Amino acid sequence: MPFSPSIKQQFIQIAKAGCVVAALGFAFAGNALAQRSIAEQYIHDMKEGKISAAGADDHVVQELIIKRSIPITYKYINTLMNTPNAFGPGVACTTCHNSQDASKSYRGLDLSTCKGINDGSTEKPKRALFTPGTDAKRDILIRRLRNNRMPLGQGFENSTYTPNHMLVKQWIADGAKNDDNFTKNVLPLFSTANAFGPETPACTACHMSNQEPPSFHELNLTTHAGILLGADSVAKGVDKATKVIIPGSPEKSFVWQHLSEDRMPPGISPSEARDHPNTTILATWIKQGAKCD
Questions:
Q1: Alpha-carbon torsion 253, 214, 56, 43, what sign?
Q2: What does the alpha-carbon distance between residue 96 and residue 87 come to, in Å, rounded to a whole number?
Q3: For residues 133 and 289, is the Cβ–Cβ distance under 8 A?
Q4: Is the pLDDT at 283 greater than 50, yes or no?
Q5: Which has the higher per-residue pLDDT, 243 or 11?
Q6: C-alpha 232: how far from its chain's center?
Q7: Are the beta carbons of 245 and 261 closer than 8 angstroms?
Q8: 98-153: pLDDT as tens digits
Q9: What is the pLDDT confidence band of residue 19, given thresholds at 50, 70 and 90?
Q10: Longest Cα pair distance anywhere in the chain, in angstroms?
Q11: CA pair distance 12, 105, nearest whole angstrom
Q12: What pairs with residue 110 in β-bridges?
């Protein structure tokens, strides 16, 4: 049935109005998206399937805090420092580190105040524990909470200043050269049981090639080339392998860090998860600027 010109004009007006309403609807939707609260956005992401599956110990921290850029307050960090088992089984951090007086607190490190945490250790060599505003995963504070001392199972009471330890440290400090000193004095240590602690296996028992399995982290400590190549060269690619030796800098070299630094709290088992949720939160606070307010 044909429509009269007046009826057609009415349909055209209705269609135009519908387009305006639709356009306004999209505008309101966009505005609503911009104004969503964190809770609303989380619910939306769940419905959209953007929330990763649970499994990791810090899954909740990653989903609810890290991905949502929730500001971490110093008040919470202070609670962690004063709470036993906050980063794994063990005493509170402030039990041993509660003053900048080195005669009363290990390393003159005060973890009971925000200023003390930011200042770091005051006993020589004085050094900060991290750089505020950066990823602190490789910085002193976070790695001491994550990195297990090698060989695994070493007690904190075992010295890290033995002649063998010092040979490795000096070799790195001198440039990590492939010379007679390395061949005769350093390399054999990595393949000798008990070289860095009593009743411990040789380093090469776990790190003998750049293939995993059988070698942990694809790290080969049997040759100079393998040591200098570093870890995870297959997984990441040779050019992006994790360097475990920084020639001239023992303190920055992972091999020396693992040989000389005890994981905190003292006595924590190497079987304990390295990425404790509270360690993730502490690292996030640092990356957010380590603010004291």
A1: positive
A2: 15
A3: yes
A4: yes
A5: 243
A6: 17
A7: no
A8: 999 999 999 999 999 999 999 999 999 999 999 999 999 999 999 999 999 999 98
A9: very low
A10: 104
A11: 82
A12: 98
Residue 226 has pLDDT above 90, yes or no: yes
Q: Within 13 Å of residue 229, how many CA atoms lie on the same side as its CB?
A: 22
Look up residue 82 and give its two tokens: 């004063």
Residue 34 has a pLDDT of: 59
The three state secondary structure string of the chain is CCCCHHHHHHHHHHHHHHHHHHHHHHHHHHHHHHCCCHHHHHHHHHHCCCCCCCCCCCHHHHHHHHCCCCCCCHHHHHHHHCCCCCCCCCCCHHHHCECCCCCCCHHHCECCCHHHHHHCECCCCCECCCCCCCCCCCCHHHHHHHCCCCCCCCCCCCCCCCHHHHHHHHHHHCCCCCCHHHHHHHHHHHCCCCCCCCCCCCHHHCCECCCCCCCHHHCECCCHHHHHHCECHHHHCHHHCECCCCCCCHHHCHHHHHHHCCCCCCCCCCCCCCCCHHHHHHHHHHHCCCCCC
Q: List, in sequence order, every residue forming a beta bridge with 98; answer none if it has no partner.
A: 110
Structure tokens at 53: 């599956």
Tell me the C-alpha distance between 193 and 190, whole Å: 8
217 or 55, greater pLDDT: 217
Measured CA to CA, the distance from residue 252 to residue 14 in angstroms comes to 72
For residue 287 the two structure tokens come to 């990356």
Assigned token pair, 34: 């911009």
Q: Is 202 left (phi over 0), alpha (psi -120 to 50) or beta?
A: beta
Say what the pLDDT of residue 167 is.
Answer: 98
What gap in Å lies between CA 123 and CA 103, rounded to an integer? Answer: 9
Tokens of 182: 């390395």
- Per-residue pLDDT, 41: 87
Which value, in Å, is the radius of gyration of the alpha carbons in the chain? Answer: 28
Q: Is the peptide bond before 265 cis (omega within 30 degrees of 0)?
A: yes
Residue 255 structure tokens = 């091999």
